[in-house]
Specification:
Helices cover 52% and strands 13% of the residues. The protein has 297 residues and is an alpha/beta fold. It folds into three domains: 124 residues, Conserved hypothetical protein from pyrococcus furiosus pfu- 392566-001, ParB domain; 54 residues, no CATH class; 52 residues, no CATH class. A five-stranded mixed sheet has the order 1-5-3-4-2. Strands 6-7 form a two-stranded antiparallel ribbon. Strand 6 and strand 7 form a beta hairpin. The radius of gyration is 34 Å and the shape is elongated.
Length: 297
């Protein structure tokens, strides 16, 4: 699908949003049909329903809260008014909103947008977070999938808008094929996206679990995880067929006579093979040689 085919969808959204966010608030006259900046009570604001972020780092929120308390909010958040709820829903800036709560503020500067659809809110929340590299691998993958489903666009188009390669988008989406507990490990940082891709090398769920447990136990690198995945993907060697009773009896008799391990190796027809007599020292070899000479002579 060519980029122009999106028409008034994501193309129009990004153009409109760039104008809303980049135009200084003072340059917008009162009553503009697009947006206005005002102070809004924090208790009148609700999170974005389409927020791709699932995990908010408490330490970083505290740092941002301290900065806001000392220097104020340097950039307003973006909200849209929901008349049905009589609330303002966040479009962009949930971290700033949460940090302002921690800083003890009662109101916040907000750019109030009056014409955003659900699809636009979803796209804005995802693209802002991806550009800031604020999301964990699963949050990014869920955001990609949500945006693709809502807009019906291809991975290629999505990659172009987010500034990523098509392969990066595809690899990200594949992480959603992992079991939920492995996705949870990606979300909390127990394993990295590279470890997740190594797990995806194994189609067998049981082998995935074996490798996952190894990752957690040994803290292996991504390269080690990939090598382990390749090893696990190799087919298991077929079990050896038991030796015929007469061969096993011969080995036992000869071992008893020589006092060391004896092995008979043979081909399919047993007409040719090897008789292997083991020794563990030169002295033992001399003793074996002497006993064999005595038997032969």
């Amino acid at each position: 699908m060519p980029r122009q085919a999106l028409g008034k969808g994501l193309d129009a959204l990004l153009k409109q949003t760039q104008d809303v966010l980049n135009n200084p608030p003072a340059a917008r006259p009162e009553g503009t049909p697009h947006s206005s900046v005002q102070k809004i009570a924090l208790d009148k604001i609700i999170p974005n329903r389409f927020q791709p972020r699932r995990v908010f780092d408490e330490a970083k929120l505290q740092e941002l809260a301290q900065s806001i308390a000392e220097h104020g909010l340097t950039q307003p958040i973006v909200v849209v008014y929901d008349a049905g709820l009589d609330k303002y829903e966040i479009v962009v800036g949930e971290r700033r909103f949460r940090a302002s709560q921690l800083a003890g503020l009662t109101e916040i500067d907000a750019l109030v947008h009056k014409a955003l659809t659900d699809k636009q809110m979803c796209a804005l929340a995802l693209i802002e977070n991806i550009q800031r590299e604020d999301l964990n691998p699963i949050e990014t993958a869920l955001g990609y999938r949500n945006l693709m489903n809502k807009f019906g666009i291809s991975q290629t188009d999505l990659a172009g808008y987010c500034g990523k390669s098509k392969g990066a988008v595809s690899n990200s989406l594949r992480l959603l094929d992992l079991p939920e507990h492995m996705q949870a490990a990606l979300q909390d940082g127990t394993i990295t996206e590279g470890h997740g891709r190594a797990l995806l090398m194994l189609p067998d769920l049981a082998k995935k679990e074996v490798l996952f447990q190894r990752m957690k136990k040994s803290k292996m690198s991504v390269r080690q995880a990939e090598d382990a995945a390749r090893a696990l993907s190799q087919p298991a060697a077929a079990p050896k067929a038991p030796k015929p009773p007469e061969v096993a009896s011969f080995e036992n008799d000869l071992q008893a006579a020589l006092g060391t391990k004896v092995e008979v190796r043979y081909g399919k027809k047993m007409s040719k093979g090897l008789l292997i007599i083991q020794y563990n020292s030169l002295e033992e070899l001399d003793n074996l040689a002497g006993r064999l000479k005595t038997k032969l002579l």
